[in-house]
Amino acid sequence: MTQSIKSVHEPFTGTWQYIVADTRYAHAAIIDPVLDYDKETGIITTTSADELLDIIASHGYTISHILETHAHADHLTASRYLQAKLAQRQQQRPLVCIGQGIQQVQNTMGQLYGAFDHTFPDGSDFHIGDLQARVIHLPGHTPDHIGYVIGENIFTGDSIFNPDVSSARCDFPGGSATDLYASSQKLLAFPENYRLYTGHDYPPKDRACKSTEGSEAVPYTTVGEQKLGNKHVKVGTKLGDFVKWRTERDAGLSDPKLLRQAMHVNVRGGRLPASPVEGFKITSVPECVPSAA
């Protein structure tokens, strides 16, 4: 069994997108793909998603799953566009998946149940080719947040960031600094050699290292590195100190630039709203980007 992980950074939103493959059987999954959107012009494009499709085609992968770690508030997901394009290329239609906690998020948006092909309960297992994947609930940033454990790799979404970036905000509906602290401790309890692949990276100006992708953004660090150096949740950090700092920090943050647009798409499983939404300008939509019924 051979595993491959391709990390693709989308710089406008700082999002890491991943393709995880069982290279022996050429089966793979996509994690947290980005649909490009210009808020000022209302133009939607698929440059980032098409880069993923090119990688998939070059390796001859069959995609079984398109996996979301949570309902993102800072970018639109390309899950349904990728599903449509891949369904044209391969016999198997990939499933768009997220954690079962999405129902709590959907409740705040009008009960959009059934928007996803599959919702994972905490602790559930599934396969990508011959690779076994396990779902872990990692609430705090959002209540629906999950991570994916695949081999000795954990795709953490926004439940923990690289040590010099540290942690994500918790002020969205259902968010909790207490829960985020608990989720970080759950991750730091894994063996120290395990790799934690983050959902975003916003490289500090003084970062010395560069990733293997040739950019300043770094897709992963190890559990051991996080325990030693994460400036918010390293070993020895007390719950009360973290909650106080995170709460005070969140109180001074502005909303993500694409919050309204992202939530209207992402709680629908990657489909655009069927009717106009105030504050969500759409002037151009590529073929294969679907709207909700």
UniProtKB/TrEMBL annotation:
Keywords: Metal-binding
Pfam families the record matches: Lactamase_B
Keyword Cell membrane assigned: no
Record-annotated Metallo-beta-lactamase domain positions: 14-200
GO MF annotation, one: sulfur dioxygenase activity
The organism's place on the tree of life at top rank: Eukaryota
Signal peptide: none
Annotated SMART domains: Lactamase_B
GO biological process: glutathione metabolic process; hydrogen sulfide metabolic process
Name used for this protein in its record: Metallo-beta-lactamase domain-containing protein
The species this protein was found in: Cryoendolithus antarcticus
